[in-house]
Write the structure tokens for this entry.
Amino acid sequence: MHLPGSSSANSPLKFALFIYLSLVVVLAFSLTAEGMPKLYFRHGAVSSAKTLNLLAVAHNYMSQGKKAIVMKPSLDTRFGADAVKSRAGLSQPADVLIERDTNLLDISEDIRRNVNCVLVDEVQFLDPLQIDQLRAITQLWKVPVICYGLRTDFRTNLFPGSRRLLEVADAIEEVKTTCQFCNSKAVFNLKHVNGKADCTGPAVQLGAEEKYFPACFKCYKDALKKAGQPVSVWEDGFPGDDDRSSSESDTSLEESTGSLN
Ligand SMILES: [Zn+2]
């Protein structure tokens, strides 16, 4: 794994985040110490450091002399075909690239030998059948499977893979972040096209970072409303949106979550 140089201005912040994520790993170990290894779904809005979390887990396994397999869908080529890379700069090549028709139970013995953990990035792009295969792997390989990804697309609809994970995962955990436009917790993924909010186009449309923003409900709906694009589930208008200011009703991130992951 490539670690960024210690001379960068935000290294103390990265180090603190790394230590915090390490504690999360210890918690994951404790949760899997008894009984069957678990299937985890760690979901979060865009830019919530999910991949950084994944890479920290992989690093911790490696530093303890253990083996973690990193998988990602081949569909995600933003940082190169086989690179798992966080926006903070950490990166690692994927051990397994998942195609639409990949049977994860057929992964070669060379790759899965002596494995201690399976980590999956951008899991929302997997087929529901592949989620069931990950579910089976926890039992067949006797290792925890930790999946990171988006819960919903930019139209607020569940990705099929994420839906299946919500149905069959042992543990569902939120990787929290703040709204790009205020200080509330982000729940939605707002797409911008040419600088304007947009909810058209296919659900699976990987793009540059500037195209997707983490947003709270108010900022999400206000941006789409301003752009004349109410999302499909609210195409007749957002309920309760009768010129009333809802700014006083927002719950701050600190009140709702305690702290950031
Ligand atoms: Zn907001």
Notes: Residues 1-9, 244-261 have pLDDT under 50 and may be disordered. The pocket of zinc ion is lined by residues 179, 181-182, 184, 215-216, 218-219 (CB under 6 Å).
